Here is the input.
Amino acid sequence: MNCQTINGTARYRALIPLAATVLGIGTVSSASAETSLNVVGSWGSLEMHQKFEQPFWSRTLPEASDGEIMTQVTSFDQMGIANSDVFRYLGDGLFDVGITVGDYTVSDAPELEGLDLPMMTTESDQAREVAEAFRPIAERALNQRFNSHVLAIVPYPAQVLFCNTPISGLSDLEGKKVRGSGRSTGEFLEALGAQSLNIAFNEVPGSLERGVIDCAVTGSMSGYSAGWYDVSSHMLPLPIGGWDYVITAINQDKWESIDVAEQQLIQDQVDDAFTAPVWANAENETQRGIACLTGKGDCPAGDPAGMTLIEPTRADTERARQALQDVVLPAWAGRVDADTLEQWNAGVGQVVDLQAEAP
Here is the structure.
């Protein structure tokens, strides 16, 4: 097994009964099912899990298999495990399918940062091209580091900027304390003159309210769902935190135990009934989130808030691109091997018109 050893054997053993309890609450059951999959999804409170992951794994796939595949579905936060541990536990076989944001795992797999560098792309169509070009790198990283096989790469909506103080653009971030959404985002913010802080998503509202931070980055609809509009006043809709790509992977040993025809069924269903709808939703959800946060447009999710929408300028996009080229991309290139750089430059680099070189 090539996955990295989990820190703390006692902690791992303590999680086994928890996993058995949580995953034992099966959403689909069949005494005659030949394949059983325990699935741990991403944030249980967000639309990705509720609208896409949960329905797909609990209903769509079992029905498409005519009951030959049985699933048990939960989310990592419902299990009480850290988001950064999802692929570690997946690799060790605590569950069969794991789903989490690639940026959460970069301390173990720095290659995955190259999927979602800040401001690498601002449009969902190009973001999908990036995901497709990056998939071979993701597959190698997940296989070698986490004993897992990639099934899908899909995005959260664009990761935009919320501030509790008036801003007019990126230049106003200088000197401000900003919660980023990953190491590369932190490096990007530092390049703009901001102070980057690492704060858990659910701790952001309190940190904004107390003035621990001035701004924070997350998806527009995620910020609306979490009530960030109550503690922030201005929003800049540039994907400063990228797209927070979510990777779905299956334990390699489990995958190899499934016959080829069933493997093909699973992959086809993931492609058609999960990956495609999530990508179709990405752009719409970003715009719905902006409408809900600012009151500019329809908000089907509830009562709209009244945040001030800051329209990005050409100066903003040029400054962001410069920070990416001069600071973020070289820093990442220095953390990965030559083979990864060559593969990235030949794939993602061609999509986004960038070339990565180690400093």
